[in-house]
Amino acid sequence: MSWLVLILRIVLGAIFIVAGGSKIGHADVFAAQIAGFRLLAPAVIAPIAIALPFLEILLGIYLISGCSRAPRPGRRSYCSVSSTLPLHPRWFAG
After folding, report:
1. First to last CA, the chain
2. Which end of the chain is more exposed for a tag (fewer CB within 10 A), N or C?
3. Residues 31-48 pLDDT 10s
4. C-alpha triplet 50, 77, 10: angle, nearest 5°
């Protein structure tokens, strides 16, 4: 059973990473696709089109790394660092 869970985590994580990676650099096309659903206000479409691909990649990494499982002593600090590292101010510097 644990092998099945591991394989499913890796496959689903890879899907998230590939889906997010394919949207990076194409925010205008992705924003047009989001706008086509007519579910969101126009003011929030552009920020979502920019942020969502990075969130998908982070979720994929999160799934593959196993941070979603019950924390063990060594994994707890790794998951804390890996989830806060992208929030470092240098990431937002132009």
Report:
1. 46
2. C
3. 999 999 999 999 999 999
4. 55
